[in-house]
Write a sequence for this structure.
């Protein structure tokens, strides 16, 4: 069977295991070789979308360890603080080295899945682009793309993000500022070149290069007319677009991509016959900013989200809670039951 998640097989050589887990296994191999333990994993935040269970099942399958009883919630289930998401019962020596590893898998994947769900809900069904590739170490793209999809954001921008997904790759990208810079700041020339090389792509113009989003949007839409699919605003939070400079500002509400700018852009596009051109916004968007835009009926069609995908880290902890079927655990970490957890097969 294919190694679906491309697990680095060095995990079975303790390459990624903390030294104290390896030493504990050696000690127990000598003094408690037949001890049967139950370990459970949990976290402490409300409305957490659990992700990583399928990856853990794949690791256990590849490990070829037999005689483990594994119980878990379903991938994508929502759990509350202290609610167990995974339990493994067996000889501790067989899986001791996986304790920290599984903590990390659940933490990373569930963080991304939970953030994706919150952002997706805030966007009220509008399309969200996961643009986190530029905000994190590149080897995280595979698991982040998978977890993002579990959480509800399926619009990804790199091939690596689709590696763990059983679906056709459909990249969602626009032009970067570097393309416009390469044409000496000429937005028309850059857009024309993009269209010529990728004639079957949706034509999306990035319009904040000159910090003049409204005029540049009208310029590019008037030039390419109905060929333009969307314009994207990516104004930095420390800037005020030229079209807003004459307005009075309180509390920086005119900085960056803001409701006033987007509403004005929509109005100008419509007045000039570009009602079908969509508006994409990015730069500093998270669930709170998206919710604010939606509550104020800002005419955004697509949101681009970066580091908000991996913020608000969710930490998981694995603890022994039973030894030979009897209660034994750190204070406050007792064996806990959940009607969501069920026995699963991993072989």
């Amino acid at each position: 069977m294919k190694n679906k998640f491309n697990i680095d097989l060095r995990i079975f050589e303790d390459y990624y295991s903390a030294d104290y887990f390896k030493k504990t296994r050696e000690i127990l191999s000598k003094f408690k070789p037949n001890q049967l333990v139950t370990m459970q994993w949990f976290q402490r935040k409300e409305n957490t979308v659990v992700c990583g269970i399928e990856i853990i099942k794949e690791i256990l399958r590849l490990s070829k360890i037999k005689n483990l009883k594994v119980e878990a919630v379903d991938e994508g289930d929502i759990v509350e603080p202290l609610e167990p998401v995974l339990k493994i019962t067996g000889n501790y020596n067989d899986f001791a080295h996986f304790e920290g590893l599984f903590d990390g898998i659940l933490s990373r994947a569930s963080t991304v899945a939970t953030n994706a769900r919150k952002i997706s809900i805030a966007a009220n069904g509008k399309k969200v682009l996961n643009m986190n590739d530029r905000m994190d170490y590149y080897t995280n793209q595979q698991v982040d793309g998978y977890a993002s999809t579990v959480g509800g954001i399926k619009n990804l921008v790199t091939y690596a993000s689709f590696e763990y997904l059983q679906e056709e790759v459909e990249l969602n990208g626009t032009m970067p500022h570097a393309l416009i810079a390469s044409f000496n700041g000429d937005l028309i020339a850059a857009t024309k070149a993009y269209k010529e090389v990728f004639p079957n792509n949706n034509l999306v113009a990035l319009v904040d290069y000159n910090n003049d989003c409204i005029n540049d949007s009208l310029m590019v839409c008037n030039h390419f007319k109905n060929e333009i699919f969307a314009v994207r605003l990516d104004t930095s939070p420390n800037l005020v677009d030229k079209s807003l400079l004459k307005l009075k500002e309180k509390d920086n509400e005119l900085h960056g991509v803001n409701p006033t700018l987007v509403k004005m852009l929509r109005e100008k596009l419509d007045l000039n016959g570009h009602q079908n051109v969509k508006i994409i916004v990015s730069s500093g968007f998270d669930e709170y900013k998206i919710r604010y835009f939606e509550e104020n009926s800002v005419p955004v069609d697509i949101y681009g989200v970066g580091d908000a995908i991996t913020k608000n880290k969710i930490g998981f902890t694995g603890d022994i809670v039973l030894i030979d079927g009897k209660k034994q655990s750190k204070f406050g970490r007792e064996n806990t039951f959940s009607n969501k957890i069920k026995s699963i097969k991993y072989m």
Residues 124-309 form a domain with the TIM Barrel fold (CATH 3.20.20.70).
